[in-house]
């Protein structure tokens, strides 16, 4: 049996990059699904008002009446917002458009950056899940700050394109600021190279450049550009379910293994 119930492996991961379209949501869904295949119980918190993770996991709007907006603004109990997906042991706290007004509504609340941190400390929730994966919006707004305040670690997907690292120093500065105040224990778990195209020299150049600059924090596993990864959301399942042997699915499984190994290493 897996060590899924071993509290020591429990982690909250925030998938962060203020750029859109770099593979945050694809990583949240498929990394989560691959962790589930490894025997973990995984909850995705959709913190993007676009709700792409919720849509990709097949949560209809009728099951998003209560959503992550209620978590942040209404202080609803997190476990009361959890929606199951078609994948056993993979659930989601969904999001929809009303989340986009959360920063304005919380503007006069001194504790506004700790709303998620507080709500994810619910013992019942922590007992139920091995991993909590937070899918962030494409900004370093209050929503992302809430995610970083609540997380143990940040995962940063970087698209293998020119200017991949643009904005990264701002992101890392934000992480340092969060560490100084809201969450001293926050770490950068890793950088994930996404949409790697081996027929395109640029991908390799960018990947080498990123590794040269960032070193070991970059995962060995690279996520290839794979059409199955982009098709799966329209079937409302992770790619690992839609096409289990696609290159994209294999890559996310390898990434999950690497993440689990790193977890053991840093715990040792
Ligand atoms: P983000 O959440 O950072 O905005 P997404 O995960 O939504 O990024 O990805 C942006 C678009 O690229 C989506 O249409 C998604 O399906 C597609 N996509 C993401 N990763 C890959 C990949 N490795 N190969 C092919 N398409 C991808
Ligand atoms: Mg997204």
UniProtKB/TrEMBL annotation:
Residue ranges of domain AAA in the record: 11-187
InterPro entries in the record: AAA_dom, DNA_Partitioning_ATPase, P-loop_NTPase
PANTHER family named among the record's database cross-references: P-LOOP CONTAINING NUCLEOSIDE TRIPHOSPHATE HYDROLASE (PTHR13696), PARA FAMILY PROTEIN CT_582 (PTHR13696:SF52)
Purpose: Involved in chromosome partition. Localize to both poles of the predivisional cell following completion of DNA replication.
Protein name: Chromosome partitioning protein ParA
Organism this protein belongs to: Albimonas donghaensis
């Amino acid at each position: 049996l897996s060590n899924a119930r071993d509290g020591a492996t429990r982690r909250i991961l925030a998938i962060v990059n203020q750029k859109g379209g770099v593979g945050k949501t694809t990583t949240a869904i498929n990394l989560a699904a691959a962790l589930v295949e490894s025997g973990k119980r995984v909850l995705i918190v959709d913190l993007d008002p676009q709700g792409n993770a919720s849509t990709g996991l097949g949560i209809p709007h009728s099951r998003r009446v209560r959503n992550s907006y209620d978590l942040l603004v209404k202080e609803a109990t997190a476990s009361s917002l959890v929606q199951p997906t078609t994948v056993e042991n993979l659930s989601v706290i969904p999001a929809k458009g009303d989340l986009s007004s959360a920063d304005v509504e919380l503007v006069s609340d001194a504790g506004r950056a700790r709303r998620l941190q507080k709500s994810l400390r619910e013992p019942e929730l922590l007992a139920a899940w091995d991993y909590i994966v937070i899918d962030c919006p494409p900004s370093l707004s209050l929503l992302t700050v809430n995610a970083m305040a609540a997380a143990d670690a940040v995962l940063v997907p970087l698209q293998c394109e020119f200017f991949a690292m643009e904005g990264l120093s701002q992101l890392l500065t934000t992480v340092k600021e969060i560490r100084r105040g809201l969450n001293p224990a926050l770490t950068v778990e890793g950088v994930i190279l996404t949409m790697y195209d081996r027929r395109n020299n640029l991908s390799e150049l960018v990947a080498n450049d990123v590794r040269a600059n960032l070193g070991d924090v970059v995962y060995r596993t690279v996520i290839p550009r794979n059409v199955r990864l982009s098709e799966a959301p329209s079937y409302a399942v992770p790619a690992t379910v839609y096409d289990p042997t696609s290159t994209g699915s294999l890559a996310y499984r390898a990434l999950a293994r690497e993440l689990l190994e790193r977890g053991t290493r840093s715990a040792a």
